[in-house]
Amino acid sequence: MGDKCFYNSDGDLLVVPQQGKLRITTEFGKMTVEPNEICVLQQGMKFSVELDGCTRGYILEVYDGHFVLPSLGPIGANGLANPRDFLTPVAYYEDKEVKNYTIINKFQGHLFTAYQHHSPYDVVAWHGNYVPYKYNLSNFMTINTVSFDHADPSIFTVLTCSSVKTGVAIADFVIFPPRWSVAENTFRPPYYHRNCMSEFMGLIYGSYEAKENGFEPGGATLHSIMTPHGPDSDCFDKASNAKLVPERVAEGTMAFMFESCLSMAVTSWASKMSEKLDENYFKCWQNLKKRFNPKQVLHKSDINGE
Ligand SMILES: O=C(O)Cc1cc(O)ccc1O
Ligand SMILES: [Fe+2]
Questions:
Q1: Residue 35, Cα to own-chain centre: how many angstroms?
Q2: Which end of the chain is more exposed for a tag (fewer CB within 10 A), N or C?
Q3: Which ligand 1 atom is nearest residue 156's CA?
Q4: Homogentisate 1,2-dioxygenase C-terminal domain: which residues (predicted)?
């Protein structure tokens, strides 16, 4: 970035690199963040990013409150993302005078520029807890059913930013890591559902079990508030005929979800200029057939596929 930095007056940024390494300098020190790691750069913090080649990823911005670990309830002391795995930079400074150090600021959604004669990275030491951090997603301790039923994906919450309503998140950052699937008498993939939340999903690498085709790493899906969705018809057929033995799922895959109680607007860049909109997305559900048969009596052995 040269003699240039950025800070956001509007809120905190959660950055999910999908391709390429980010070498980030902050007022608090340096962090390298690569795919399968995430970082949070809070409101007001000045930072610069150096790239090695092609880079892309996802950013979630929250305008109120901060990301915290979800409360663990009956899980107790440890589990999911553990505090010990969040890494903060150590102080780094440069004593550098320049003609024009450019500071770019996002304020009320607009970019402003200011110039100064010295590097903003002049913090020799710091203490406190309002600091940027990074987290490696492979440290996530996954919890799931060991009996039956598909649990709410909130069990996979890495970080949450709460609204004023208890239990309702402005934003949850949820991951679907490699894990064992062992549920008995259960349709194991995500259930078909509608949701009072917006679900924006991304894929860091691999292929998401509920949509193995057409959802590429670096791509995204958006299921807006109350829009019905669920696995595509291939996934439905596979899961309906599979023997329910213990099975590894999401091997070599890291899908994630930004889930919010707010509606997400799609920019005209995303829907038009990028030319990446999949106009045929809805077709992934077109082969699903009506299967309701009020006369059918299900036995346990039918469900187990034995
Ligand atoms: O829609 C999705 O694929 C995300 C999701 C996954 C899951 O396991 C349950 C619900 C849900 O919204
Ligand atoms: Fe969903």
A1: 12
A2: C
A3: 8
A4: 138-292
